[in-house]
Design brief:
The complex is a heterodimer.
Chain A (H helix, E strand, L loop, with lengths): L5 H5 L17 H20 L8 H32 L10 H6 L10 H4 L5 H22 L5 H29 L3 H14 L11 H9 L9 H14 L22 H15 L6
Chain B lengths: L1 H15 L12 H4 L2 E6 L4 E5 L9 H14 L5 E5 L12 H10 L1 E2 L22 E5 L7 E6 L5 E5 L3
Parallel strand pairs in B: 2-3, 4-7
Antiparallel strand pairs in B: 1-2, 5-6, 6-7
The chains are: A mainly alpha, B alpha/beta.
């Protein structure tokens, strides 16, 4: 996939095609939005398990994780809104806020990882995704805590305490199902095959990640890959599973080029605000 | 003037002591350790709070209850600031808070169980013959247990 630069591309579009809330392309706001979007989409996906979990305790666990992720996403969105409001004259004189960023942007403006927009699948797929993501998020936040941007560092330091729970919980499930019955093991293998092509993207920097890392405010994602793979491989082996080999890696989410699944989840998530603009809870 | 300010500030801390956590109403927000600072200004009072967990849904209600409590006592102009750093820790819970939790039927954070595991002391019968049911409980800050002696299910307020 060629590197897609949204701000460059938008120059060729008619002005009417550019959303009023289109954020800048490579600034710190874009980096913060990427972190926010990824966290929100996974929260939204996990929340769909509410009242559908395999047993009550696990229903509560996955929705608790969803709640943590929504909280983290809110912190990132609030900060992104502040950055956008400080950065330029605001569109239509209206101040940006966390809700507008979550509910008024379109698919092409979302910068989340493809992994988190995929459907939940079965329980095996949901917990496998959570594990692959939490392992990544843990390593990311470990480094982001040292950001020279005080607010990003604070959000990371706060969030990593929660990520540790998510990682421990999902790791236990990987072991339980991988080294479980024949049925559960087959489902885990299926989940890994399904999800693995979407893991490579985590470690390929977008332009805003390169810029943020160079400025000391963000993390160079490529530096996380080795440890991530090592930790994932170790647990998979313990669970009698293995890292899929020679898989073609998908990409594009960080640049706003998504799978067909994102449009559906956004239309669901944004429905109320789009139908009744500015309605309040 | 200095003395007057500190008397005023003490009064505000006393008012904040009357504001409870809506999800664990036996704890005041001071017991919980989420009030980080009280700043007296010429025309308003600023209260600095920090969330326990990123997604704690009680924070908005807590902020509202702080406003109500202060307004009732003659402080209508209140600014509430939420900070994330340093991140809240259950170590900030007061000893009095931990005792109140136990009386309420919730096991208090225990350093021996940084990672929830079997054996947290039952708040009902004090047995340590207890079983971890789930690391995630009725709210983000609690894990679910069951006592193997008295059979009572109970919440454990996690170390965080």
């Amino acid at each position: 996939m060629q590197d897609f630069n949204p701000s460059e591309n938008l120059k060729h579009l008619g002005k009417s095609e550019i959303s009023a809330v289109s954020p800048p392309g490579i600034g710190k706001a874009a980096y913060t939005l990427h972190l926010a979007d990824t966290t929100l989409l996974l929260a939204q996906r996990n929340a769909a398990w509410c009242a559908h979990g395999p047993i009550l305790e696990q229903d509560i666990a996955i929705t608790n994780i969803s709640l943590d992720l929504i909280g983290q996403a809110r912190n990132f969105y609030q900060y992104a809104a502040t950055l956008i409001n400080n950065e330029a004259e605001t569109p239509q004189g209206k101040l940006m806020d966390e809700d507008r960023l979550a509910f008024e942007r379109t698919e092409r403006e979302f910068k989340n990882l493809l992994l988190v927009e995929l459907p939940n699948g079965d329980w095996a797929q949901t917990i496998t995704r959570q594990f692959l993501f939490s392992q990544y998020q843990f390593l990311l936040f470990e480094k982001l805590q040292a950001s020279n941007d005080e607010q990003l560092a604070a959000i990371a330091a706060k969030s990593i305490k929660e990520t540790k729970y998510h990682l421990r919980w999902s790791s236990e499930w990987i072991l339980r199902l991988g080294d479980g019955t024949q049925e559960s093991r087959e489902r885990m293998l299926q989940a890994l095959t399904e999800l693995w092509p979407f893991t490579g993207e985590m470690f390929v920097n977008a332009a805003y990640e390169v810029a943020a890392a160079a400025a000391g405010s963000g993390v160079d994602s490529s530096l996380l890959q080795q440890e991530w793979l090592q930790n994932v491989a170790q647990l998979l082996e313990e669970a009698t599973l293995a890292v899929p080999q020679n898989i073609f890696m998908q990409s594009g989410g960080k640049q706003g080029i998504h799978t067909e699944h994102l449009g559906y989840i956004l239309s669901d998530m944004q429905y109320l605000q789009r139908t009744y603009p500015n309605s309040q809870w | 003037m200095v003395a007057l300010t500190s008397i005023q500030e003490q009064k505000i801390w006393d008012i904040l002591e009357t504001v409870c956590d809506p999800e664990v109403p036996v704890l005041s927000i001071l017991d919980l350790g989420i009030v980080r600072n009280v700043i007296l200004k010429s025309n308003e009072v600023e209260i600095v709070i920090t969330p326990t967990y990123s997604g704690c849904p009680a924070m908005d209600m807590i902020a509202m209850n702080i406003r109500f409590a202060l307004a009732e006592q003659g402080y209508p102009r209140v600014k509430i600031t939420s900070v994330l750093a340093p991140a809240w820790s259950s170590d900030w819970m007061t000893t009095a808070g931990k005792e109140k939790l136990k009386l309420y039927g919730i096991a208090a954070p225990d350093k021996k169980f940084e990672i929830p595991a079997d054996g947290v002391e039952c708040p009902q019968c004090n047995s340590t013959h207890t079983k971890l049911v789930s690391e995630f409980g009725s709210t983000a800050c609690k894990a679910l247990y069951q006592c193997q002696e008295c059979s009572e299910p109970f919440d454990y307020f996690k170390c965080h």
